[in-house]
Amino acid sequence: xxxxKQDTLYVSNFPYHFExxxxxxxxxxxxxxxxxxxxxxxxxxxxxxxxxxxxxSERAARKALNYSGHxxxxxxxxxxxxxxxxxxxRERLQRDQDSVRDRGQRDQRDRGGDRxxxxxxx
Length: 122
Description:
alpha+beta; Alpha-Beta Plaits; two-stranded antiparallel sheet; 6 strands; elongated
C-alpha cells in the first residue's frame, strides 16, 4: 500500500453565498486549482458552507493551509487536508441511497400504494 497523495483540502466556514469561482480565485494564489466541489442543500440549492478543493500538487495544498484563520466577511476560514477515505465515502453514499429508497417505500405504503398486494382475491 503506497502513500496517499494529499492534494485535496477541506475548506469550511466560508459565507454561504460563496461559489466555486470565489474559492478558485482565493486558492489559485497558492497554485493551480484542479477541482472544486461545493456541496449544496437539496432544497435551497444553497452552499452548505464547506468545500473540497483539489490542488495540482501537495506543495500547493500545503501552502493553501496558510489560509486557515483568514477572515472572509468576519468569518474565520478553516482549511485542512481532506481525509482520503474513499471506502468510507462509498459506504456513506450507499447508506444514504438505501435510506432514500426505504423512505420512498414507506411513503408509498402509507399512501396505500400497495393495496393490490394486500387485497385477498379468492
